[in-house]
Amino acid sequence: MRSISLRPRFSETDALGHINNTAVAVWFEAGRMEYIDDLLAAIHGGARSWVMATQTLDYIAENFFGSEVRVDVAITKVGTSSFSVACRMYQNDKLTVRASAVLVFIDMNTKKSAPMPGDMRAVLTSELEPDWES
Amino acid sequence: MRSISLRPRFSETDALGHINNTAVAVWFEAGRMEYIDDLLAAIHGGARSWVMATQTLDYIAENFFGSEVRVDVAITKVGTSSFSVACRMYQNDKLTVRASAVLVFIDMNTKKSAPMPGDMRAVLTSELEPDWES
Amino acid sequence: MRSISLRPRFSETDALGHINNTAVAVWFEAGRMEYIDDLLAAIHGGARSWVMATQTLDYIAENFFGSEVRVDVAITKVGTSSFSVACRMYQNDKLTVRASAVLVFIDMNTKKSAPMPGDMRAVLTSELEPDWES
Amino acid sequence: MRSISLRPRFSETDALGHINNTAVAVWFEAGRMEYIDDLLAAIHGGARSWVMATQTLDYIAENFFGSEVRVDVAITKVGTSSFSVACRMYQNDKLTVRASAVLVFIDMNTKKSAPMPGDMRAVLTSELEPDWES
Q: Are strands C50-59 and B94-107 parallel, antiparallel or unpaired?
């Protein structure tokens, strides 16, 4: 599991006075990339070999400009050619967002999905937190 | 059902050479707002009385800069204080994204969810396309 | 000169209730790319061979969600390895933004700026509107 | 003067493989808001009373995903109803961007520009670094 902290940007607010729903997808990507890139940096180009198959974002409470947001990301499932991540965001210790996504491994030569290499699968599996699933 | 057309922006591409997953959430909002704002413009402030409870984005094929994207949006369910929308995106006639969301009616005085007014419910119900559900 | 029309997106508003200043940079890019890509599509990869050296954005009046914005772009100067563009944006026929930028030609092999090819220079020069300079 | 550090987000890259020019405007706002909001938090609503009149962004070198960016912001001029900020960004200790902007004080009741209150002017003036001007 990995926890990052980020500051909402004023451009991420919208005319309703809170953080726009689309900014949350950007924060989820930020947390996910930092975690996965670090895990896999030494193997096969890090997070760049993955494309998103699906993501779900549950908005539990509003986020606002002016306070940091904690983004926790965990790996909840590792398959043959894909893995799943779950995410929880907090602002002022209040849960504001739950999210999940499935990422598919892409062979950069064929540009198609493919079974992931064994060393990559081993690293991801060592991080597995199945109880974390939303 | 409503269909809008939009041009991907170069800033929406990412270093993988395609449209970034987060831009798709922006396009979904653009289609949804145009549809709902037009439907409800004369009633209770249009789409501004709604906040997103949840959204799911399924990435079926890549989108690229350089060709228009068609965004089709339909209302698939109308509840007491919320409704559901479904969305399909096409680029060069190829289905690239399926998405869905639940939007909750907010009473702008109390800032809390509330049963939606009867005239609003009637307009949304008249647009219902339950078969459209992904 | 080229004129495009675009719909502000709700995610481009901010908590002050108007379009955020950073969205205007995205609109300027959208107008510029559409113009330059079309002009140069058949030559040397279109707008992709250019990087921005500098841009200035003058905010004359607020833009709002809900009405289309017209983005006019013109080429005001053509140099040896760069050219200048100017831009004016209008919402409901009111001038809201003036902008300008200098774009530098990059040789995609060396990744460095270089004199632009003669046919590219000829196309850009044929579009010159020096009086348009802000 | 204030220095903040931020991590580029993957969604801020573009198909040229580097950070898109429009993301730099977002970073400039992030640095500016953090500085000005902190300075003026106790006075008249902080940075929210300001709108941008003009900004210039000079792109000196590319920024990339994967390394933090340092954003330095300074106040270079204080007028009757406006002030000027300058900004320098660095990635891996290399200067990548210089920027400047003029912000105008808005009376939130009349929604028009107005002379700024004396205590606000005093705080901004105490931070003046005229030599910092680009």
A: unpaired
Amino acid at D49: S
Binary contact (A29, D7; C-beta < 8 A): no
What pTM, to 2 d.p., does this model score?
0.95
Distance, CA of C72 to CA of A10 (rounded, Å): 27
Q: Which helix (H) or strand (E) holds B99?
A: strand B94-107
Q: Is D68 helix (H, G, I), strand (E, B) or coil?
A: coil
Helix (H/G/I), strand (E/B), else coil: C94 = strand
Q: What counts of helices (H) and strands (E) characterise chain B?
A: 2, 6
Per-residue H/E/C for D31-81 = HHHHHHHHHHCCCCCHHHHEEEEEEEEEECCCCCCCCCEEEEEEEEEECCC
CA atoms within 13 A on the CB side of C77: 14
Query: Among A30-39, B28-37, B44-53, B84-93, where is mean pLDDT lowest?
Result: B44-53
Q: Which residue has the tokens 């559409």?
A: C34
Encoded tokens for A77 = 């499932």
Measured between alpha carbons, how far is residue A24 from residues B15, C89, D61 in Å?
A: 20, 29, 29
- Closest Cα in chain C, distance from residue B105 (Å): 17
- Give alpha helix (H) positions in chain B: 21-40, 118-126
User: Which two three-digit tokens encode residue D81?
Assistant: 């109803």
ipTM: 0.94
| Residues B24, B65: Cα–Cα separation, whole Å | 13
DSSP state of A71: E
Pairing of strands A50-59, A94-107: antiparallel
CA distance D15 to chain B (A): 4
pLDDT in tens, chain D (134 residues): 999 999 999 999 999 999 999 999 999 999 999 999 888 877 765 556 889 999 999 999 999 999 999 999 999 999 999 999 999 999 999 999 999 999 999 887 888 899 998 999 999 999 999 888 76
Q: What is the pLDDT of residue C107?
A: 84
Specify which residues C82 forms β-bridges with. Answer: C104
Q: What is the pLDDT of residues B2-55, one digit of tens each?
A: 999 999 999 999 999 999 999 999 999 999 999 998 888 777 655 568 899 999
- Helix H or strand E encompassing A112: strand A112-113
Nearest C-alpha in A relative to B112:
A61
Q: Which residues of B touch C29 (CB under 8 A)?
A: 9-11
Q: How far is C27 from chain D (nearest CA, A)?
A: 10
Substitution target from C14, C19, C29, C59 for chain D, most D beta carbons within 10 A: C59
